[in-house]
Backbone:
């Protein structure tokens, strides 16, 4: 029994252990050119050195700030907008095509446009990320509102709630599980766009710039270190959102 | 029906769905301080009727007055069939009950006092600080009823309130509802798809026809309250139920023959 419990606790780590072991084995046997694939130890050391002595921490911070800024702008603009659009099916139908069209347009294709408008700087990176994340948040919020249970709105109405109170006190909360889905995908998407922007749009800092710089000077351990840091960041943000969601939307799916 | 006893007057109610008339020039009076059950064939618009009276569905034409007042000047309570969809899962049960009081702008102390009074009246023993989804179906519907009664409504509407509950819980809830009725005398309008229940709860059973809907007959049941399962076998009850069944079958068959 006890060994079974231990197995269950360790099982999530199992895949990671197998992955690192295969990586180590491949590196050890030199199946891939060591210049291209450094050993796990070298990469781990690069992460350690990057944080302790280099400016990996600084780059991480810059990427986090850009991502969160883009995300915040997206939430502030698109949650209210989604709420309004979703509360009138007719209104949403009128805008559905435009939303779907821009949602299907790769946000990275908009970089040149935003560059022309906003210039080479922070604002372009944040704006494109906010745009992409915003559309995800917008249509998820609108769907959440449209699929809100009509009975709950009716219950509030019959008890004398005004239209605004129903919208804010019932519909908004009712749409929250779906809004959170949008926010979770939105923040991941914002991170993707910010990393890409850091790589190609005149950046001097950020994880994306770090990855591309390391690649250019063929410093593979450092490149892996930056990639893994970006991975940990993405994973942590997702995990953070799941925890926040579980706390605030405790009724979701019940 | 004596005019002074009338609580709700429905005049010239007209409603059609997709061009099909459901109600045309429908007139009806609901008596004050009585339980009226609404029963009729499928699709005759039982729920639509109370939803229109309660202002949840707009009417095409017609007027509904409560003691001569409009709906906006009247406090009503409504118990939905699907308690799971009607309660607010983000609010604790106690806050669900207080919600209509908060809407009315009552003070926190006032809300608490009213909630405690309801808890005492219903003899609630489970923890109301839990969320609705943590409770059983019966307990959730009990919270719905308490929420509907919190603002001391003049009229309580119940749309198939017990149809999602098991039989044991249904019997218990019928007793609870009767006890509340006995202590408050609130006018109640119950939609039911179960004839036995419709007759058992009611002072008057409103039998509706197929659409376009009219009142086929109003069947009264004088049996004393509180009623108990024994009532179900009393001659009064049997007679009323069989009368309802006759009317119902006549209505269903008329249409079948006509079509």
Residues:
């Amino acid at each position: 029994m006890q060994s079974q419990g231990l197995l269950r606790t360790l099982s999530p780590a199992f895949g990671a252990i197998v992955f690192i072991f295969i990586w180590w084995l491949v590196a050890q046997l030199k199946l891939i050119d060591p210049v291209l694939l450094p050993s796990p130890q070298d990469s781990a050391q690069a992460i350690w050195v990057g944080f302790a002595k280099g400016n990996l921490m600084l780059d991480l911070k810059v990427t986090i700030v850009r991502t969160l800024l883009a995300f915040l702008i997206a939430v502030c603009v698109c949650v209210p907008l989604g709420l309004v659009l979703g509360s009138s099916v007719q209104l949403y139908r009128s805008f559905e095509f435009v939303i779907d069209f821009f949602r299907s347009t790769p946000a990275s294709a908009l970089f040149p446009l935003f560059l022309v408008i906003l210039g080479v700087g922070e604002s372009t990176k944040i704006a494109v990320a906010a745009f992409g994340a915003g559309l995800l948040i917008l249509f998820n919020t609108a769907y959440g509102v449209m699929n809100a249970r009509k009975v709950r709105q009716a219950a509030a109405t019959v008890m004398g709630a005004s239209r605004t109170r129903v919208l804010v006190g019932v519909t908004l909360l009712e749409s929250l599980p779906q809004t959170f889905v949008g926010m979770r995908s939105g923040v991941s998407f914002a991170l993707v766009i910010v990393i890409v922007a850091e790589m190609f749009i005149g950046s001097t800092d950020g994880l994306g710039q770090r990855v591309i710089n390391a690649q250019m000077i063929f410093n593979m351990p450092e490149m892996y270190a930056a990639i893994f840091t970006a991975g940990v960041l993405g994973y942590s943000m997702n995990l953070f959102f799941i925890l926040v969601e579980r706390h605030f939307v405790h009724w979701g799916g019940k | 029906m004596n005019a002074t006893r009338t609580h709700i007057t429905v005049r010239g109610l007209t409603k059609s769905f997709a061009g099909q008339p459901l109600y045309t020039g429908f007139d009806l009076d609901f008596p004050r301080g009585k339980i009226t059950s609404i029963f009729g064939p499928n699709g005759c618009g039982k729920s639509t009727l109370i939803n229109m009276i309660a202002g949840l569905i707009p009417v095409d034409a017609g007027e509904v007055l409560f003691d001569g007042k409009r709906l906006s000047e009247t406090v009503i309570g409504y118990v939905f069939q699907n308690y799971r969809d009607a309660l607010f899962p983000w609010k604790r049960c106690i806050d669900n009950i207080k919600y209509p009081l908060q809407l009315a702008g009552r003070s926190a102390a006032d809300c608490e006092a009213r909630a405690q009074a309801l808890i005492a009246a219903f003899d609630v023993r489970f923890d109301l600080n839990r969320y609705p989804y943590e409770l059983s179906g019966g307990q959730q519907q009990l919270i719905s009823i308490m929420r509907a009664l919190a603002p001391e409504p003049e009229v309580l509407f119940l749309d198939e309130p017990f149809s999602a509950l098991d039989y044991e819980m249904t019997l218990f809830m019928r007793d609870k509802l009767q006890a509340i009725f006995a202590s408050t005398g609130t006018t109640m309008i119950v939609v039911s798809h179960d004839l036995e229940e419709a007759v058992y709860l009611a002072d008057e059973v409103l039998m509706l026809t197929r659409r376009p809907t009219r009142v086929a007959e109003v069947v009264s049941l004088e049996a004393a309250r509180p009623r108990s399962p024994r009532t179900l076998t009393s001659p009064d009850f049997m007679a009323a139920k069989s009368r309802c069944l006759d009317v119902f079958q006549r209505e269903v068959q008329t249409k079948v023959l006509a079509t």
Summary: DSSP finds ten helices and no strands in chain A. The two ends of chain A are 32 Å apart (CA to CA).
